[in-house]
Specification:
There is one protein chain. By secondary structure, the protein is an all-alpha fold. The chain contains 17 helices and two strands. It has a two-stranded antiparallel ribbon with strand order 1-2. The radius of gyration is 25 Å and the shape is elongated.
């Protein structure tokens, strides 16, 4: 693809495309923009779910919220900006080549931040599973903030110098309106630091998490874990479920990013021979950030329960209030159907369930919760 090596010079004209390719380009713009807007809605919903209702001194919550915000920015800012530049180039709108400085730099920083944030989540789950006694110290609020700040320093520090190179502009615009780093050495170096390294960290941590899952499953099958011990290790079980979510999210990210590296390695001339077809690679990338919330919801039962409570309007209510709706007579509330009892049993500890097993105590608890 013939990239302009001088941002201040005249930009290359938009290529003359046959009618079928113009229609394909319009379809690409519409499909990618629709997926991007759908991703905004998905990430906003997941952000509503993951935002903590109370401040905790430790835990994975801040890292998950940060990860969701980054995916939201990809769908809300980065990809719509790319589409706008391509659309402006196609329709002949006045656009300066320097727009690539901002569009591609923001896009690269955002992509690298998602990758490093995913790596941070994988390391967090590794600590939770293999070093549970140090988990509080390693996931305190100062440590989480330091991890987030360090990832920003790494991504911005490695990206901006290449985008604003002094002697030769580091970013160029193609005839189709796509922005990229003009120097192949810069592209390879950035790919190593913002993609390969965090993917390697996430991959190793995910393999260790998978090993932990296999060992836990084998112990359950052999009966080496006593039922009483399993019931009292709810924290460990919850961490295993969260680790499973991180593992599935990493696998989904790898599936969406794999075509980009395969085509870039095996079909490097695709951008020159069929530039419109090469655009669909970006659609595969936007699918990663759009459907990551769906992957996290599918693999995390607690998130699914929070979604149900959102649509019922009970997310900010105490568990006892959300479980027993304050409708009907007092007798109807105290003798509620199986769904109410099931929700209470899932929310309360076993000792509390035993205490409310008698009708008299159950009625007193219902009066207090209502």
């Amino acid at each position: 693809m013939n990239f302009s090596t001088n941002i201040t010079a005249t930009l290359p004209p938009f290529p003359a495309l046959p009618r079928s390719k113009r229609q394909e380009l319009t379809a690409w713009l519409a499909v990618t923009l629709t997926i991007s807007f759908f991703g905004v809605a998905n990430n906003l919903l997941l952000l509503r779910i993951t935002l903590p209702t109370k401040v905790r001194k430790f835990g994975v919550g801040p890292l998950v919220v940060h990860f969701v915000v980054l995916n939201l920015l990809m769908c809300l800012v980065s990809f719509p900006s790319i589409l706008f530049v391509v659309l402006a180039k196609r329709d002949g709108w006045p656009i300066a080549g320097s727009a690539c400085y901002y569009v591609h730099t923001i896009f690269t920083i955002n992509v690298s931040m998602v990758n490093w944030s995913d790596a941070g989540l994988a390391v967090n789950r590794f600590v939770a599973l293999y070093y549970p006694h140090r988990y509080r110290t390693c996931t305190s609020t100062p440590v989480n903030l330091a991890v987030i700040l360090l990832s920003w320093i790494i991504c911005v520090g490695f990206t901006v110098p290449f985008a604003v190179a002094v002697n030769a502009p580091g970013v160029a615009m193609s005839p189709m309106g796509l922005c990229t780093f003009s120097n192949s050495i810069s592209r390879n170096y950035l790919a190593f630091t913002i993609s390969y390294v965090p993917y390697a960290v996430s991959g190793v941590a995910s393999l260790l998490i998978l090993w932990k899952f296999v060992g836990h499953h084998l112990r359950l099958q052999r009966g080496t874990v006593a039922p009483d011990a399993t019931a009292t290790c709810r924290t460990a079980t919850r961490r295993l479920k969260m680790a499973r979510m991180i593992l599935v999210t990493f696998l989904w990210s790898g599936i969406c990013a794999l075509p980009t590296y395969i085509i870039g390695t095996l079909l490097p001339s695709l951008g020159r021979n069929d530039p419109v077809a090469a655009l669909w690679i970006r659609t595969g990338l936007v699918c990663q950030y759009t459907f990551t919330p769906c992957i996290m919801l599918i693999s995390n039962g607690e998130y699914r329960r929070r979604v149900t409570r959102i649509f019922k309007g009970h997310l900010n209510l105490p568990v006892s209030v959300a479980a027993v709706p304050p409708t009907g007579t007092r007798d109807q509330r105290t003798t509620g159907g199986p769904s109410n009892n099931f929700e209470l049993s899932a929310a309360l500890s076993r000792s509390q369930v035993r205490r409310i097993s008698s009708p008299t105590r159950f009625r007193r608890n219902s009066q207090f919760s209502s």
